[in-house]
Specification:
Layout: H1 2-71, H2 79-103, H3 107-121, H4 129-152
Helix pairs in contact: 1-2, 1-3, 1-4, 2-3, 3-4
Length: 157
């Protein structure tokens, strides 16, 4: 009788050990998968936010170059070429903003991105010098406000 009890205890102990091992392995695997998924999302966010920030900076620079080419008659700067380049870069920035909208859950960050794009797009060649200086400064602040907010969404806590 003692052998049967010992055998039953051994079998039950083995089953409990197997179940506990299975449970902890499953939980560890789920934790690892969740970590990998979060890290991929973080990397995608870093990529999307920096691509959008870069697109804004390029659009802003070309818009300013276009204004200077008309108002300061800078040599070597063709306003017509810069006009088409501005259109191309605006489209690139819009595409980058769409990517930002896909990878973030923050409505505030999306609104900051839209505001930054709008503010950069306000740098037009027909602006007076004072208005140009104003929009240049507003757009700079908007771009950096977006990037500062975006940084908070990729920081590892």
């Amino acid at each position: 009788m003692e052998i049967i009890v010992t055998s039953v205890v051994a079998v039950v102990g083995t089953l409990l050990g197997s179940l506990a091992t299975h449970y902890f392995q499953r939980r560890n695997r789920a934790d690892a998968e969740r970590f990998e998924r979060n890290e991929r999302l973080r990397q995608e966010r870093v990529s999307a936010y920096t691509a959008f920030g870069g697109a804004l900076i390029n659009l802003r620079r070309t818009s300013k170059d276009r204004w200077y080419s008309i108002h300061d008659q800078r040599d070597g700067a063709d306003p017509e070429t810069l006009r088409y380049e501005t259109y191309r870069l605006f489209t690139t920035a819009q595409e980058a903003l769409f990517r930002v909208e896909l990878v973030t859950e923050s409505r505030d960050l999306i609104e900051l991105g839209r505001k930054a794009l709008t503010d950069v797009d306000r740098i037009k060649p027909d602006l007076a010098r004072d208005d140009f200086a104003h929009h240049r400064e507003v757009s700079r602040r908007s771009v950096f406000a977006f990037m500062e907010a975006a940084r908070k969404h990729v920081d590892v806590a």
